[in-house]
Amino acid sequence: MGLDELAISRRRCRVEDSAAHPSDISASHEELLQHPSNSDCDSLHIRRPLLLTVSSKNQIMKEKEDRSGRAAFVSRRTKIKCLCGIVAILILLGISFIAAAIGFYLKLQKDVEEVHETKAYLMGLVQQVNQAPELKWKAKYNPFGTRKKDHNFPFDKNSTAIREYLNRLSEFFNSEKMKQHLRELTEFPADSLPSEFDARRKWSYCSSLHNVPNQGGCGACYAVAAVGVASDRACIASNGTLQSMFSEEDVLGCCAVCGNCYGGDPLKALVYWVDEGLVTGGRDGCRPYSVDLSCGVPCSPAVYPLAEYRRKCYRQCQDIYFQYNYESDKHYGSMAYSMFPRTMSLDNKGSERVKLPTVIGYLNETSDEPLTDKEIRQIIMKELYLWGPMTMAFPVTEEFLHYSSGVFSPFPAANFSDRIVYWHVARLIGWGKYDGDNHYWLAVNSFGRHWGDDGVFRIDTQLLERFGLEYETALP
């Protein structure tokens, strides 16, 4: 039966059914089975549910296919978006990498050019020094030399703690011990001083006096010099029975107000010796110096931040030093003081400064006439001759880092301040004269023995007298 015939037959059957059974339009499936008929209508009544079921299934399958198609489309679109995002990220990373590589290359080129320019400049400076007939010192090119540069190192000063130190300095200066010290200093005749003096010869039995320290990659010159002075004076006062070298690491790590790897104050370190005590140092003592020494002679200030990051306070001795514990290994001074008039800053900006009591300041105030440069120099010489070394602060210029021998003086004299790399502290151990009545100080530096004249240098006193610099010391 064709489709057209089937449709006509179905319409006819609906008409017949309506006429034969007006009250019951549809017959149940069971009645049809009980009254079989060969007519087309009967056949259609039996097959109609089957045809409707197949149609529904086809519709459901079609809907599923539509949904699957839409899901597949959405999935493909999501994958494409993810892929595009990944590609975009990779492109951005590639661009960033290329930009970083170009920036690194340009910086490297700039650094290389700067190194070559600095080397050429410093070698030219060394040549000028050695060719200047009026100079009394010689220079040797030092590959670890550097030019003036502002490193912007952070400083954090505790004004409360500093005021406590100031109070201690006032107590020291007003003590009976200081009064006795000032009497002995003034009563010693200046004409009894030798024209040349080296503390290493007078107190040759003190091993610390012959020590040339190396501060390494930390701006700890203040601690190294102050602890060296404490070690020297403790040995001298004991007539050589106390040969220990004290620990710079103890001051550097545990004295919160003294300073850090960016610099500090030797006077505060000496007050720390008096109030808190110092343990032994050196290679085999309680607290050896642990700062890296391989970075140069001297090391550049650029490496100081690493040492500052590692700086810690350990109140215990190294394992091999088992004979004493940290507290029982401490040695103490009796009083600390400054020789030359100076002030001390109370804040980070240096806007608030306080004048300190000093030996020369006191003697100048109690003198009938203001002290001359010669008289001031003689007071420092008497202090050194009677009790031993002291710290000495001075400005380090670019040419000083290439010092080899002789009596250092800045060259060229013009634009001296423009060449100051940093301020430095060394250990003053003697004096002498040259070219008639010209004077120099003999000092031990903290750059190791490979620098200068076996780690030692001589410097014209006019430089220090011109700047009115600092001399600090203490008594055991």
From TrEMBL:
SUPFAM superfamilies: Cysteine proteinases. Residues 193-467 form the Peptidase C1A papain C-terminal domain. The chain crosses the membrane at residues 83-106. Keywords: Hydrolase, Membrane, Protease, Thiol protease, Transmembrane, Transmembrane helix. Pfam families: Peptidase_C1. One of its GO terms (molecular function) is cysteine-type peptidase activity. One of its GO terms (biological process) is proteolysis. Belongs to the peptidase C1 family. This is Cathepsin B cysteine proteinase 6.
